[in-house]
Each structure stands twice: as structure tokens, then as C-alpha cells.
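It would be a great kindness if you could assist me with a short task in structural biology. A protein sequence and the C-alpha cells that stand for its backbone fold form the material at issue. I should value your view on which stretches of the chain appear to form regular backbone elements. The record follows directly beneath this note.
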Amino acid sequence: MSVRGNAPSARRDAALAQEGGAKPLGLTAAMIDLGKLVIRSQAPQLKLRLIVALVLTFGSKVTDVMAPLLLGAAINSLVGGGFKVGAMRRGARFVAGQPHPHVAAQMSIAFAVLAGGWAVVRFLSSAAPQARDIVFGPVGQAAQRRAASETFAHALSLSLDYHQTKRTGALSRTVDRGSRAVDFLLRTVIFNLAPTVLALVVAAIVLAKAYDWRFAATAVVTVVIYGVLTFSISDWRIGHRRVLNEADAEASARAVDALINYETVKAFGAEARAARGYSEALEVYGRASEKANTSLALLNMVQAAVMSAGLGVMAVLAGLEVAAGRMGPGDIMSAILILTGLYAPLNILGFAYREIRQSVIDMEAMLALTAKTPDIADAPDAVTLPPCPHGRGGEIAFEGVSFRHGARVEGLREVSFTAAPGSTVAIVGPSGAGKSTLIRLAMRLLDPQEGRVTLDGHDLRQITQASLRRAVALVPQDVALFNDTLYANIGFGRPDATDEDVWAAAEAAELGPFIRALPDGMATKVGERGLKLSGGERQRVGLARALLADPRVLILDEATSALDSRTEAAIQATLRRAKAGRTTLIVAHRLSTVADADEILVIKAGRIVERGPHVGLIARDGEYAALWKKQTREA
């Protein structure tokens, strides 16, 4: 019977990969990619381990066939006195009688030697695969680790649009299953199915030479029928498995989405609704699982019937040969054990075939992910951003920049402005005017479709992203934190910062008293996405992180929107100190927070409709003045 259970298999991400234009991956192409992955896995002593593992694998299959012959010869030595393996041919007669005591002693010694040899050979055939796993284990792990790390790193390099539309649960499963498929294909195809074909060839040769061609034909025909029926039924079962996989992916996605958005679920009292949706997905999965298990049981019965028929034919042939005196009783056992030895690896053929198909799909999804080209990538001739020529502040300029999202009717159109070194430029306007797009362009999370954005005279597309990220820091409106300590979250802005640097940044963001009042201080865990902290506390952590990075351009995207008036006043004082000598871009809805900016840009429908200082814009009595009057009346 086939091995039961669920192994790594493709989920909905495989279907998504197909929808995304990924070409179906054949077994040959998968093995080629697998070989390349093993070569670049940088496993210790890679070539030596591969050679030793292959030798142990093929040696194991050869000894699997030879061991039954030794046992049969041992039994024949007891019955016929010195019967030798392969000595019986047509026309020779097997004669059993009462041996002389001296002969009996010789027979006992011969039996002991042959039986001992059988035990040794059998041990070698069993120990060789274990030794192979020890030798090859580091290679498999290195290849699996390399596949996972490369895919994960590539996923992080993909564009903002991709990450805004992805399903986190499906993406993590793609990485996980793709890397595990690497290990499964290595172990199953290279060290199981391929050696099994060799074992069949060796067994057929041995049976034909030692006994009769009919024994070899029986073994080959049994294995061929077994394989054809197994592959046919497994292909039919693939449809059931796909439905099962999609149902499992849906259940997993519902669970992950509900857990990630726990606060939203809780706020709307939707716990029962989320649980009901998860239960419905599990119900679909249960029905699909029943069909998959039923078809698996059918496959098991067919396999058992074919193998039992083959063993029966082999036993009858051997019995007829013994009755004719052309074989000894021990040869019956040898022939049956040889076929049984072939049956052992074939036992998992249905499982292996199905899981190889699924593993290829898993690899296909992983390769489709790695084949995605990042929209934002370093140019081949990209250079590292030189040191700031203006001290702490850099000059950032937009030159005729236009950009429109595919999902939006309008975008930025011909935006031009310059933030001089050390100046503060505020960006205001109604929601949807393009303020966030402008900020993403300044950080090169997006590339302009027309025009260019420069930092200290360098087009952002011509400098490396790593050097740009070191020069620009963002404090977003919704600060997302890692499920780690306060120290780790603040220190994320500069990994090489000292404890004093981290504390100085925390103090600058008005976090010092709050952290010292906590029982665990800086070691306090902030929870998933920082949900253990209030909105204002998260914003202050984000501000501390940005200040620790000590950028030449500081971008504040509604960085004080979640603070109370008293804390905001304190933070504004901190920001005035932090902005000294540093170029700052501020996106704000509350105009009172940007009244002291050197220049205020008013954006409407993707265009800069007004610009100037606060006093001048009020005197102009235009869009900015209207916004100011509205907010002051509401206040």
C-alpha cells in the first residue's frame, strides 16, 4: 500500500502563479533548476558528498538484489549439500538425501558462512541509505536554505504595488513549500526512483542468469504494470488534490487575514462571522479530503493486487522448477525476496509520483515569484550616493515629474519644486491630491513616468537604493513596528548604533519617561505591528527610529496626527531641533503644524496650484487660505 498522509503540496499560490503568466515547469526543467541550485548552495565539500551519496545509493540497490541470492544458497546448502548460486541449469537435477556426518558438518559450515554473508549484505543494503542521508543531509539543507533565502530576498525587492496587492499568507506558503520541494525532489527523484530503475535492471539480469528468463520477465512485467496503473490513477487523483489544496489555501488565508486584522474584527464584533467563514472553508476542505482519501484507497488496492499477482506468478514458476529438479527450495525464497525487494521502493511510487508532481508545481510557484522583475531596481551603472555636500541637509528636486497609478483616474502632473538644503517644505492639499505619491517618489518607492527626481543633483534612478535609504528617512502616519522590543524597533533605523545613541533618539522623540516607567524598559515587547502601544506611542517610536538614522532628508507623513495636543507641542519642539540644518518634507492635514515651513506647496488634482510661505499664502486668499479658514473655524 502507498504511504498515507499529506506531504508538501502546492496551494492556491500555484494557481496564482499560472494566472500571472508562469510557464508550466516540467520534471526535466525542474531537475535542471534543482541542479543549478545545488551547485550554488555552497554546501561544505559539495562534490565529495554528491559522489559518496550516489555510490552509497547505487551500492544499496545492488546489495538489495544480491542478499536474497545468498540466503537461497544457504538454504540449498542444507538441503542439497554445497549447492552454489547459479549452478543449477536446465538438465541438472537437484538431489536431496541423507548426508554423511562429515558432509553434514561441511554443510553446516557452508550454511553458516552463506547465512552470515546474507546478514552482512542485508545490513549493508539497509545501512547504506542511512549513511547516504548523513553524508547528503548538509547538501539538501544548504539547497533548501538557499532556495528559501533567495526567494525571500527577491520578494522583499519587489515593488510597492506588488506588496500592496499580495496575500501575506499565500506568499509565505510559496516560499516555504518551494524550499521544501527542493529537498523532497532531491531525496525522492535522485535517491529513490532513479536507483529503483537501476535495481530493476540488476534484478532482471540476475534472475535471468541465475535461474530463467521467465523470472526476469515476470519481475519486469509486474513492475511495468504496477507503474502504469499507479501513474494513471495518480494523474486522475491530481484533480482531487488541486481542489484539496485550494480549499486548504482558502482556509489558511481566511485565518491569517482575520488574525492580522484582529483589531478590525474585534472593533466590529465580527468574531463569530470570521470564525464562521473559517469553518465554511474547513467544510469545503473536509469534502475535498474525503474524495482524495477515497481515491487513495483505490490506488492502494490496485497496487496491492498487481504486486500480489506478480509474487504469485513468481512463486508458481519457482515451485515448478523445484518440482522439475532444476532449482533448490532456497531459490524459491530468493526469487520471491528479489521481487519483494523491488516492491519496497515501489510501495511509495504512487505517493512519490503525486508528490513529485506537486513539488514541481511548488517549485514552479517559487520560480514564478523569483522571475518577477522588480519595478524599482538599481541601474547596472548605479553609483553610491556621495557624502552630502551641504552638511546635514541634502537638496531634493522634482523636475517636471508626472506619475499616475493604474487604479487611479488622476495622478501627479508636471510637478516641479526644489527643497533647498536645510529647508522645510510642507505639502498640503485634500485627500487623493497626490501627496503620498509625491513622498513615495522622493524615497524612490516609485519611479516617475515623466521627469526626474534628484538628490544633491543625482537622479534617484542612477544611485543605489541602499545609499538612498541611508540618506532619506520616513516617519509615516501609520507606523508599523516589528513584534520585538522597543530597543530593536528604535535601533532598526541604524543597526550599528550604540545604547547611548538609541536612548538619545528615544529622548529626542519624548519617549524617555514612557520607557523608564515600563517594567521591562527598552526590553518591552510591542506586540504584532506594535499593537500593544497607543497610536501616539507608535508614532514616537517611528520618529525615534528616523532620528537615529540621522538622514540628510527627513520626511514626515502626518507624523504627529495621533498625538494629543500637549505631546504634539513637545514633539513639534523636538522636530524643530531635529530639522535644524536638515532638509525636511512634511505632509500635513493640520495646517497649524506647517505654518513655520520655509515653503508650503498646495497640491490639488495632482498639480501644485499654490506655493509660498504661510503668510504669503494667507494674503493671496486662494486654496490655502480657504483650507486655513475652514480649519480655524472648526477649531
Remarks:
- The first helix runs from residue 12 to 19.
- The two ends are 77 Å apart (CA to CA).
- The chain has two domains: 14-371, 396-634.
